Amino acid sequence: MSSAPVIELTSLSKTFGSTIAVDDLDWSGGLGVIGLLGPNGAGKSTLLRMLATVLAQDGGAIKVFGLDPADADDRLAIRRRLGYLPQEAGLYRNFTAFDLVDYVAVLKEITDRPTRRAEVRRVLDDVGMTDDMHRRIRTLSGGMQRRVALAAALLGRPDLLVLDEPSAGLDPDQRLRLRTVLSEIGRRATVLLSTHQTEEVAAFCQRVLVLDHGRLLFDGSPRDLANRAVGRVWISEQPDTDALRSWVTGDGDIRNIGVPPAAADVVEPTLDDGYLLVATDEAAGT
Length: 286
Known about the structure:
The protein is α/β, with parallel strands linked by helices. The chain has two domains: 7-221, Rossmann fold (3-Layer(aba) Sandwich), CATH 3.40.50.300; 226-284, no CATH class. 33% of the residues lie in helices and 26% in strands. The protein contains nine helices and 13 strands. The protein has helices at 44-51, 72-79, 97-107, 113-126, 142-154, 172-185, 198-204, 222-227, 271-284; strands at 7-16, 19-29, 32-37, 59-64, 82-85, 160-164, 190-194, 207-212, 215-220, 233-236, 245-248, 254-257, 265-266. The strands form three sheets. The protein has a six-stranded mixed β-sheet, sandwiched between helices. The protein has a four-stranded antiparallel β-sheet with strand order 11-12-10-13, with no helix packed on it. It has a three-stranded antiparallel β-sheet with strand order 2-1-4, with helices on one face. Helix 6 (172-185) links the parallel strand 6 (160-164) and strand 7 (190-194). The longest helix is centred in the middle third of the chain and has 14 residues, at 113-126. It is globular, with a radius of gyration of 21 Å. It starts with 6 loop residues before the first strand and ends with a helix.
């Protein structure tokens, strides 16, 4: 989906002691749903925190809506158009779900009470919490609490949604509902989400980034990522000891990834296959 950049990163870097979390990153993104993949420790959460104006970079530049979060006035202007779901939301346990989201709405400067309460009900309904909105946070399951935090991020129809593992703790039906909500938002805004669920990226992201050790290894469509494994996935009757990975499929076949032997039964790759090969090829320097 083409558009003017909403996010522009130039030589962006962030370190914690001797650990490089984000390493000289250049990237820009516009409207649509963008998935961010990478192993634990890849720098995904650090990158999202910088984009959400929670964490300052050590080097390089960030522009969001053409504004600089290092400038106090620009930072406030960005936050007025931003929705953010951190990995750990830190909800007030004695609040009800409604009161918690209403409190966040006040912080987001939705001051007219009837308008604000209608907006709170809208976002709680979007995440399937209408029937439980008056229960206290401490009585809700982990998945329900995650949905409350997501509802708070959706307040005010933000132009940029930054979501760190939004589907964590959600059951299959709730994940499908989340896809519907985020897909619709992506038609008018930018949604950048990190996930370990490659099927989520394949299902509704128009663009996918692969990050590892703070470096951008891949930027393209989910289909382009899957195509990185074309000709490198095959089915056999026994595990191939030369394969990078082998496992038994639901059909009882052995699926292998790597360099296939001659006359191998090569099959169509998935996004999982492409993701694995991007990471392993980078580690091998190929």
